[in-house]
Amino acid sequence: MDQTQGKIKEFLSRFFKNHDLQPQEDIFALGFVNSLLAMQLVAFVEKEFGIRVEDEDLDLDNFRSIEAISNLVARKSGAAAPAATA
Amino acid sequence: MKLELTPEQRSARAEYRAFAQAEIAPFADRWDREEALPPEIIRKLAGRGWLGSIVPAEHGGPGLDMITYGLLTEEIGRACSSTRSLLTVHDMACQGILRWGSRAQCEHWLPKLVRGEVLGAFALSEPTAGSDAKGVQTSAEKDGDGWVVNGRKKWITFAQIADLFLVFLQCEGKPTAFLIERTTPGLRVEPIKGLLGTRASMLAEMFFDGCKVPAENMVGRPGFGVSHVVAAALEQGRYSVACGSVGIAQACLDACLAYSREREQFGKPIFDHQLVRAMLSDMIVQVRSARLMCLRAGYLRQMNDPGAFMETMAAKYLASTVAAKAATDAVQIHGANGCTDDFPVSRYFRDAKVMEIIEGSTQIQQMTIARFDFQEL
């Protein structure tokens, strides 16, 4: 898990207590995602990584897992996407 | 830590206060009785750049920082909650477009909204859906390249005169936001009269009967209408209502301080009666605490901090309940005079009650705030 993924995991862990969230784990399937998390997640990635989430980024697959969010951050910040983590 | 407005913010507040006390407050009771805002005050607000004032310069707006925006809504709300409501819903529409609209939507609508050529409004509530935003039944069905909208909206602030509505509906079963123009064939708007408070905010019921809406009018993506577009617009609205509620509470305090010095009972001003003074002290402390919460929420919003969402909700919860308590005590201090429309405290009392219901009821906020702090443990 790289630094970006580590920061995302730290943020998401507040919502998934007592669960060791894995990079490819589907956070929607875990059933804890609500509008409260959704808005905070957007603000978190924007502030933490200095990107702007735009209307065309509103795709559940961009927010489905730590890895997916990390890939979105990498794309938006113009960096190469990190390698998939097993 | 520095809890102090900048010189620019102090100067802006002085301008807002001077305008509101000269151009709005003297007429607010009349507008309340007439259940309408006159077009000239809307023109004046637009002329000052106070409609869509959150819109940044790249889209033609002044791009007020969140603290300064809060000062604007507090000062306007201190004079007239209905006028503040105009700013609130117009800015909610702006925020929805600004945050999740396409580049084309931003370029087309935001400059017009800033200039006041187009008045915006926020259409979420329905006869059977209020707090449960996902329960809206208004729907959009695919029709060629566009969509056909059917359904009904209720309690839509300034719908009597708004030109552009940010509408939330079910788009093939997914919560979705659309921009719908007033001139759309099949859209009918019926005024709602006889409201308890914010009576000049020109509420209406809206009927969508086969309204054809172009595909490019969708804001965001299907399924993200409530979680993102409504959330962004409502957060803006909550902040505006929170600061406006501080304005109501401050107006109550102003009125009570003046009245309690003039009004004499038992041979002395009622200010010198201990129980009256206790109510005034409580009011002062509560107004200040609510204002501090608003400033913190504004600061976090300006920083785009993830905690801004909850802090704004907490500020709105506190400020609206403070306004309601201040208004109740203001009527009490004014006695029989407070129960007439000869004194503005009766309007504050009615308006303050509405603040506890709109942009998330007190009870919804109590449920959510506790859940948030639980997650932080």
Helix content of chain A: 40-55%
Secondary structure: number of strands of chain A: 0
Tell me the major beta sheet of chain B.
8 strands, mixed
The number of helical segments of chain B is 10
| Mean pLDDT reading of chain A | 86
Poorly predicted ranges of chain B: none
Measured distance between first and last alpha carbons of chain A: 9 Å
How much of the sequence lies in strands of chain B comes to 15-25%
Layout of strands and helices, then pairs:
The complex is a heterodimer of chains A (86) and B (377).
Chain A: H1 3-13, H2 35-49, H3 66-76
Helix pairs in contact in A: 1-2, 1-3
Chain B: H1 7-34, H2 39-47, H3 66-79, H4 81-100, H5 103-115, E1 120-123, E2 139-143, E3 146-156, E4 164-171, E5 174-181, E6 187-191, E7 204-213, E8 218-219, H6 225-262, E9 264-265, E10 268-269, H7 274-302, H8 308-334, H9 345-355, H10 362-376
Parallel strand pairs in B: 1-4, 2-4
Antiparallel strand pairs in B: 2-3, 3-7, 4-5, 5-8, 6-7, 9-10
Helix pairs in contact in B: 1-3, 3-4, 3-6, 3-7, 4-5, 4-6, 6-7, 6-8, 6-9, 7-8, 8-9, 8-10
